Amino acid sequence: MTATPDLGTPQLASPDLLRSVFRRHAAGVAVITAPGGEGPVGFTATSLTSVSAEPPVISFGIGVGASSWPAISESGHVGVHILGEHQQELAATFARSGADRFGASTRWRTGPEGVPVLDDVLAWLVCRVVARVPAGDHRIVLAEVVLGDPSGAGRPLLYHQGRFNGLRD
């Protein structure tokens, strides 16, 4: 007979269980941007994933109720920005509902394919959207890398336990 490890008190699947588990998962912080009919849009994402090296494809999730979703749902290209630990306020701005994300405090320029490119990030990509896959109340966006710049200086920003953090040695 095999011993069963102490499982504590398991909970049935629920949105609260998923949130509680993923609060314990440290994730890198990115900002996704896109051109929009009424100006640029963007949001903070911790769901960024490298999917394929050949061809180079990334993915990220976005809620269909998000203010950025209408533009992301129609845009042919998106910007992907890896934030540094010095950019906690930028991450918070792009995460905050109703914030003026491209206001005076956000340094950015219009990049290739009309994609907003943020300044002073660790790395950025411009990607061509190849699919939007339904996943519950979200869509998983698959995008092929067109070009980018990995040369920013600094250490990555992380999201853990509901807060933005830097790496510790």
TrEMBL record:
Pfam families: Flavin_Reduct (PF01613). Residues 22-166 form the Flavin reductase like domain. GO terms for molecular function: oxidoreductase activity. The keyword Oxidoreductase applies. This is Flavin reductase family protein. Signal peptide: none annotated. Keywords: Oxidoreductase. InterPro entries: Flavin_Rdtase-like_dom, NADH-dep_flavin_reductase, Split_barrel_FMN-bd. Its EC number is 1.-.-.-. It comes from Streptomyces lutosisoli.
